[in-house]
Amino acid sequence: MDLEKRTSPAPDLRKQTDLRASDADRDRTADILREALAEGRLTAEEHSERVEDVFRAKTVGELEPLVADLPVAHRSRPAAAFAPAPNRPTPGAVPPVAEENVVAVFSAAVRKGRWRIGRRTHAYAIFGSVEIDLSEAVFEHQQVVIKAIAVFGNVEIRVPENVSLRGNGGGVLGNFEVDTLDSADHDAPVVYVDGLAVLGNIEAKPKRGKLIEDILDRVGDRVNAKLRKHLGH
């Protein structure tokens, strides 16, 4: 059975307010607040409080109330662009040879915690089980391929919620299941799962509540710098 499952609606059906806010979205909102302060529409205290909320906001919907009572916010604005991740890696971006092999033969193998994921990893479960948990992994490359082979075995892959996930494979009297996932950040890593399950199971899906720390660190650094700039520190 060959199965690729979508857990989120298509991009054109997704609510605009549910999208993750980008740095550009936060900058535009902060600019509106700065203009309102200059025009006397906001006091210095109100401006400071709202700017702090701007750089804490995670979605577009959390930004809108911060400027809803200001005239500039009601001017027509172009819709945010959404570009889904490509279905296959960029040619030459991922080597054909695995940088790491995770093997379980009549046994179990686990790869999780704070570890560096290479561009290509191969997982083999032969009458055994392999668990690959990327929820705390360090991504040094934007495109990552995990090739999984399960023969009378099980390969389970978990990724952070804020990466993109693609699958390409199938099963012979087995199950191949990948939850398609698109990150709102076009710079987020893309994890490609290629696999074949023979009387076995291969499953890849996001780990709820887990976000890639590397993206959060980079965004946090930019947000702190911009917050200091807007507050005049």
Textual characterization of the structure:
Helix 1 (23-39) runs antiparallel to helix 2 (44-54). The protein has 233 residues and is of the alpha/beta class. The protein has helices at residues 23-39, 44-54, 60-67, 213-230, and strands at residues 2-6, 100-105, 108-111, 116-117, 120-126, 129-133, 138-139, 143-151, 154-159, 164-172, 175-180, 190-198, 201-206. The protein is elongated and about 70 Å long. The protein has a six-stranded parallel sheet with strand order 1-11-13-9-6-3, with no helix packed on it.
| Oligomer state of the chains in this structure | single chain
Helix-strand topology string: EHHHEEEEEEEEEEEEH
Biggest sheet architecture:
6 strands, parallel
Strand content: 25-35%
Spans of at least 5 consecutive residues whose pLDDT stays below 50 are: 1-14
Provide mean pLDDT, rounded. Answer: 83
The rough form would be described as elongated
**Radius of gyration using CA atoms only:** 22 Å
How far apart the termini lie comes to 59 Å
**Looking across the biggest beta sheet, what order are the strands in?**
1-11-13-9-6-3
Structural class: alpha/beta
Helix content: 10-25%
Short description:
This protein has 233 residues and is α/β, with parallel strands linked by helices. Helix content is 23%, strand content 33%.
